[in-house]
Amino acid sequence: MTIQLFKNGIDPNILFKYLSSGCKEKNNRYYFDLYAYKKSEFIGQLDVFLDECRPLYFKAKQKYCNGQMTFIRMLTLIRQICRHNNIDYMKHMQYLNAGYEITYSYEISNEWNEMRTDASDAINDTVRDI
Questions:
Q1: In tens digits, what is the pLDDT along the chain, a chain of 130 residues?
Q2: ∠ at Cα 3 (89, 16), nearest 5°?
Q3: Is residue 88 within 8 Å of 69, Cβ to Cβ?
Q4: b/e map of 59-68 (b: 16 or more CB within 10 Å)?
Q5: Residue by residue, what is the 3-state secondary structure of the chain?
Q6: Are 88 and 106 in contact (CB under 8 A)?
Q7: CA–CA separation, 19 vs 106, rounded Å?
Q8: What are residue 101's DSSP bridge partners?
Q9: What pLDDT does residue 116 have?
Q10: CB atoms within 10 A of CB 41
Q11: Residue 46's pLDDT is what?
């Protein structure tokens, strides 16, 4: 099914960059919930992510990135990217205040961890030089 969504595939680093901007990180996993979604929307990271993803979808499937984005639509978009790249994710539902709170957790890939560590080291080296 994912062959019918993306033109040439989608780089998982686009997803991890987005998740690292606003999600809680614990035990080598990112936790994405309504609060992380609202935070990314507020700081403008959501629009950047959608602009990066939109050209990677076939024209007929760009509907997932266009229009009014909601939390549920965003979860669909992230699940599609995870399935395409074989990224492990889990859904957690918790009953809270007469409603359900949905949280997804995504496993952080080793490649992303290494890239993030290298970037952090480069920043620290630059700061030391100043």
A1: 446 888 888 888 889 889 988 888 888 899 999 999 999 999 999 999 999 999 998 988 888 888 889 999 999 999 999 999 888 899 999 888 888 888 999 888 676 666 655 554 544 454 445 5
A2: 35
A3: no
A4: eeeeebbeee
A5: CHHHCECCCCCHHHHHHHHHHHCEEECCEEEECHHHHHHHHHHCHHHHHHHHHHHHECHHHHHHCCCCCCHHHHHHHHHHHHHHHCCCEEEEEEEECCEEEEEEEEECCHHHHHHHHHHHHHHHHHHHHC
A6: yes
A7: 9
A8: 94
A9: 56
A10: 15
A11: 92
- Name all contacts of 34-40 with Cβ < 8 Å and 24+ positions apart: 34/71, 34/101, 34/102, 37/71, 37/74
CA distance 74 to 41: 11
Q: What is the pLDDT of residue 97?
A: 84
Look up residue 43 and give its amino acid: I
The structure tokens listed for 116 are 């993030």
Phi, psi of 80 (to 5 degrees): -60, -45
Beta bridge partners of 99: 96
Distance, in Å, from the CA atom of 113 to the CA atom of 74, rounded to the nearest integer, reads 23
